Structure formats: C-alpha cells, structure tokens
C-alpha cells in the first residue's frame, strides 16, 4: 500500500510540474544540461544502438541522444503522463518509443538495450526502490550493455558545501516560490537530495547486480553517479 501511494504521489506531482520542468536548467545556471551531456558520454553510444532513458522526464536526454545519433532506437520511460506528453511534443516519435510506465517494471523486452541512462531520477526513489530499479536495468540490458546513473548530491564539506546549502536550502526555494515551481518552491528538491545524500549509499547494491561498476563525483560532489556494464 505504501509503495503504491508513493507511485500515485509521484505521478500527480510530476504531472503538475511537467510544463515548467525545463526551467530547472536556467535555475541551475546550465549545470543540469552540462551534467546530462557529460553523463551520456560515459556510455560510449554508437550509431544504430538501442538506448533506454529511464525516468526520462520531458525528454532532455532523449533530445541529446537523437541529435548525435539520429539512427539509434530510443526508449523513453516515465510514470508521468504530463512528462511523456511534453517529451513527445518537444522531440516527436521518429526512432523514439515513449512509454508511460513505472521505470521499476517496464514493458521493455529483456536483453534488448545496448545502453541505459537515468539522470536526476534516483533521489525520488527509496533505497529499496533503487535496488529494484538496478535489477530492472540489468534485465533490459544486452550482455555487456552499458549503464549510467547520475544524480544531484549533497557535498560533504568545504566551500562547496556552504554554497550548496545556501543555494539549495535558501535561494532556490525562494526562486521556486517566485516562479511558482512546486518542485523547488516547497523544497521537494532539496529534501530529496538530503535524503539521497550521494551515490556511495548504493555502491553495494550496484555491485551485487552488475559485473563492472565505477563511481564518480563531479563539481566538488554536487553530482555523483555510477556507470559500468552488465
């Protein structure tokens, strides 16, 4: 019951947020776009491969993949109908299959994807849900298929931590209320990052599923993630 309630909440919340999600890049001073590009380069995608973007939101990753690899087949999966509708409007459906589904249990065939990406989605899931997600990624990846998970994280110390605390704890919620963005205005984003902390909490879960795992930390710990192969 609790799990299904969380799913319903996330669906309603991100449906409401879908029309203004693109403003996050402006509020992050371009960090969101820079992170997406850098994250996707870790996959070493080749033309014609099949790529799945889980929790794809409004399709920002999909747009980047399509621009560079327009002959690749792409799956975009998100639980929010509003997000999928926005992604379809932005990028159309040429070589893209959009699925309004739970990323923890999609209809994508087993061993069908060369690569899987997931950017800024882990913090919305509980620890147990993330373990389910990793198993689902393993299922849909081809043998030796690549994956990358990238997430906003909380720096541990120093000037970066002070700047992070000021921006995410005070300035961003203020801007969110001014621009009527519930995702940041009600501190959902900062609270989610606080709960997630960083990727190291999931290291054992990654290594229990995948044969190759490399953790990374970018921009002084503001972004952390994991990449590797099935």
Automatic annotation (TrEMBL):
Gene Ontology MF, one: methyltransferase activity
GO process terms (BP): methylation
Top-level taxon in the UniProt lineage: Bacteria
Annotated transmembrane regions: 159-180
Keywords: Membrane, Methyltransferase, Transferase, Transmembrane, Transmembrane helix
Pfam families found in the cross-reference section: Ubie_methyltran
The protein, known as: SAM-dependent methyltransferase
């Amino acid at each position: 019951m609790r799990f299904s309630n969380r799913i319903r909440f996330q669906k309603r919340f991100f449906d409401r947020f879908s029309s203004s999600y693109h403003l996050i890049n402006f509020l992050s001073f371009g960090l969101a776009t820079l992170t997406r590009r850098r994250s996707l380069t870790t996959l070493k995608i080749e033309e014609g491969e099949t790529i799945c973007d889980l929790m794809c939101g409004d399709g920002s990753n999909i747009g980047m993949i399509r621009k560079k690899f327009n002959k690749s087949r792409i799956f975009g999966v998100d639980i929010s109908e509003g997000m999928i509708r926005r992604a379809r409007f932005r990028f159309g459906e040429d070589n893209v299959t959009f699925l309004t589904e739970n990323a923890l249990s999609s209809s994508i065939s087993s061993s069908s994807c060369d690569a899987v990406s997931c950017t800024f989605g882990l913090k919305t899931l509980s620890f147990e849900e993330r373990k389910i997600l990793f198993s689902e990624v393993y299922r849909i990846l081809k043998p030796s298929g690549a994956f990358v998970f990238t997430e906003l994280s909380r720096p541990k110390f120093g000037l970066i931590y002070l700047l992070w605390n000021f921006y995410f704890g005070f300035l961003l919620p203020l801007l969110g209320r001014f621009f009527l963005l519930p995702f940041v205005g009600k501190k959902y984003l900062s609270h989610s990052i606080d709960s997630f902390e960083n990727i190291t909490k999931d290291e054992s879960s990654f290594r229990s599923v995948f044969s190759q795992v490399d953790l990374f930390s970018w921009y002084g710990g503001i972004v952390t993630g994991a990449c590797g192969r099935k």
